[in-house]
Write a structure and sequence with these properties.
single chain; 249 residues; alpha+beta; Glucose Permease (Domain IIA); 3-stranded antiparallel beta sheet; Phosphatidylserine decarboxylase proenzyme
């Protein structure tokens, strides 16, 4: 199904498939499988079975399912699977505000809407670009490993800022944030790369969060407490400011 065009009138074909394992996780799965095989060869069943289960857990964590990304010039899609835990007004991080001398200005100091998506260890951890455009910044910042659900994790935890600029100059920034268990942010992109909306940009190992900074004048089309699917869930439509209410049930 990769690269196929599908629509809301039945064009295309869709079928369930086992998700692939991202190459970043295959080495860990192979190491665990080798250890499990060794324990089984030695007839140490009390160790062989737990390590065999560990292989399955690693494969599940690094799963990389295909996604169908809605097409639309003004659509902003979710960069991460997870739970929307915070929606607030705040200026973008300083690293995304300032002009870094690269010829592409920052997002400015004006407060914009930030959507925080918390990823548990059970969620897919491949992150995707919310819009199509050119990668202007990839900035890694070392830091702490506080609970990623805390608001202050945006400023104190290990994190990586990415800014993508559309052809018309509109910019969106998003931040990969490590959490209590996450110990490494793995980028797949670099400044100058061209991206399509929903394209893979990196992953965070073992539980974390992604913050998205919407452009000024844009409000989310999702609700606090809603689950998102990376590359599929529409977070917002640029220039639209709807008030949407929901009921927890």
């Amino acid at each position: 199904m990769s690269g196929e065009i599908l629509d809301n009138r039945g064009r295309g074909q869709a079928a369930w498939n086992w998700p692939s394992i991202h190459p970043e996780g295959r080495k860990f799965a192979l190491i665990a499988a080798a250890i499990s095989a060794f324990f089984a060869f030695m007839a140490w069943e009390t160790l062989a079975w737990p390590t065999a289960v560990l292989v399955l857990c690693i494969a599940a964590f690094f799963r990389d399912p295909q996604r169908v990304t809605p097409r639309g010039d003004n659509l902003v899609v979710a960069p991460a699977d997870g739970l929307i835990t915070l929606i607030t007004k705040t200026p973008p991080p300083r690293e995304l505000q300032i002009d870094d001398g690269s010829g592409s200005g920052g997002m400015g100091e004006e407060a914009v809407t930030r959507i925080s998506i918390f990823m548990s260890v059970f969620d897919v951890h491949i992150n995707r670009s919310p819009i199509g455009g050119t990668v202007r910044r990839v900035i890694y910042i070392p830091g702490k490993y506080l609970n990623a659900g805390l608001d202050k994790a945006s400023e104190e935890n290990e994190r990586q800022h990415i800014m993508v600029e559309r052809g018309d100059g509109l910019k969106i920034g998003f931040t990969q944030i490590a959490g209590l268990v996450a110990k490494r942010i793995v980028p797949f992109v670099k400044p100058g790369d061209m991206l399509a909306a929903g394209q893979r940009v990196g992953l965070i190992r073992f539980g974390s969060r992604v913050d998205v900074y919407l452009p000024a004048g844009t409000e989310p089309k999702v609700l606090l407490g809603q689950k998102t699917i990376a590359g599929e869930t529409v977070l917002a439509e640029i220039g639209q400011q709807p008030l949407i209410e929901g009921v927890s049930q």
